Amino acid sequence: MRELLEGEGVGEAVSSAPLVVVEYGSSACAPCAALHGRIERWEREHPGVLALYVPLERHMEEAAQAGIMGSPTVEVWAHGKLALRESGYFSLDLLLARAERWLG
Q1: What is the pLDDT of residues 49-104, one digit of tens each?
Q2: b/e map of 59-87 (b: 16 or more CB within 10 Å)?
């Protein structure tokens, strides 16, 4: 999982791979840390998938413009379009299982 770079927009990043999982999180968010490792593992198991971490501390304005109101929030982008979004308490396993329909 790579971190969104300063000056880079999420829109640019999600167009760089057919399937992109974006985690919006914060260093103060314990659930975010737990999701982070699981998303990294899923990315390794699925070649061609890009996982992107957006630290809210450095990208608050962009997150707000995208309608991200809390952390953790995980989005799945398929072919440059937002396909799935979950925030707060949700099943990451279910979200990633739903995302697999866009693989291959």
Answers
A1: 999 999 999 999 889 988 998 899 999 999 999 999 999 999 999 999 999 999 86
A2: beebbeebebeebbbbbbbbeeeeebbbe
Domain range summary for the chain, segments of one domain joined by +: 2-102
- The answer to whether 2 touches 51, Cβ cutoff 8 Å, is yes
β-bridge pairing 19-25 and 49-55: parallel
- pLDDT tens-digit map of 10-32: 988 888 889 999 999 999 999 99
How much is the pTM?
0.94
3-state DSSP assignment of residue 76: strand
CATH number for region 2-102: 3.40.30.10
What 3 state SS string does 14-68 have?
Answer: HCCCCEEEEEEECCCCHHHHHHHHHHHHHHHHCCCEEEEEEECCCCHHHHHHCCC
